[in-house]
Amino acid sequence: MRWPVFPLVFVVLGCGAEAPPGETGLSAEPGEELSGGETTVHDTSKNAYSLSARNMTPERRSAFFVGNSFFKENWVIAPSSTEGRDGLGPLFNARSCSSCHLLDGRGSPPDDPAEPLVSVLLRLGIPGVDAHGGPAPEPLYGGQLQPRAIPGVAPEGDAFVAYEEMPGSFPDGETYSLRKPVYTIAAARGDMQPDTLFSPRVAPAMIGLGLLEAITEEDVLRAEDPGDADGDGISGRANHVWDVARGAVTLGRFGWKANQPTLMQQTAGAFLGDMGITTSMFLTEECTDAQADCKAAPTGGSPEASEKILGDVAFYSTTLAVPARRDVGDPGVLAGKQHFLKLGCGKCHTPLFRTGTFDGYPELSGQTIRPFTDLLLHDMGEALADDRPDFEADGREWRTAPLWGLGLLETVNGHKNLLHDGRARGFVEAVLWHGGEAEGSREAFRALPSEDRRALVRFLESL
Question: Mapping DSSP to helix (H, G, I), strand (E, B) and coil, where does residue 439 land?
Fold first, then answer.
């Protein structure tokens, strides 16, 4: 079959930094190495992202391991003798959660342009909104491109990425190159609408998600400044999204555009969108009206994942710990920290929060944490725009990415690819992609002497 091909071009966001050379006279803050407060794990191995909160009781840690087993479990096609584990598809991206979140870490685009995207999914939509104010799905393909299918059902197609190198140089003459992604979709079920909107999304790391949910709504909203009333060029605002369990609009926290309100809904959404597994929260398969073969396919019951399995995976996702920082007292790290703050990076990548009371999660409540995010949306400029709105997030806005744990990304996942689509090959490229509200910080970073830029990276590597 010859598939029609659609060329696309996209972009997204990353992080920031700071550092005067030599002795700074600074010292580490008390407890600064404890990124997740008392939940923090002291591990620098490949398993650094896969450990439970350290302050959990043995009984609750047992529940964590049960959730871990379901997180790694491959689902199978229905009907199957594997009771409670069948119902994969009809359309899907992966067979298990860990297929994309390897070792609970970040996905990455393939290096080979002939290799299809796996741990980077492609969101789809058309102009307009759905019944709850979210993105309107593409009529034929729905809200997400699903490249795999069970027998008897046609897959939706594959997406590929190639890169255009964009060379540049710092004022001191040091050179760099940014890679601009060019996406191609090989659509298997026919042409998409000409005005289809696309957004590539890397599978993010799973660490510390429960701690982010434990931050009070009041503390998140306190940092909003949509009209830039203080004149600092930063105008973060919250996304407000549909909460299925509450049947109401509420604060969005999770996802690249803060389009999910809770980890339970994020988990149920991933079961459905990524694996085609229905839950009590989402009982209907994601088959569009035009996909008769999908609608006619066998299912694993209703729902396919029991309430227990959904709850166990959500519990696991909520209680994954954050690894401790390294070398917090190192002079180079302290210099980089100082630059991070002076350049204004901490205005979006908020270093410090105190969690509130999180019902059902005593270990996550009342913790001093250092996530380096404000959970708010920011305009990151045209170069990073995907032009696909998501609830109240417009096509240029992205939620501030948490920075905790990124210094161990290469150890855990074997790459240093950052930003929403993995285009940045390390911290320097991630900073240089910043625009919009972050343009001033980016240009200040570019103007730093090379020694100070290295200190900035040294600080980010300590996180």
Answer: helix
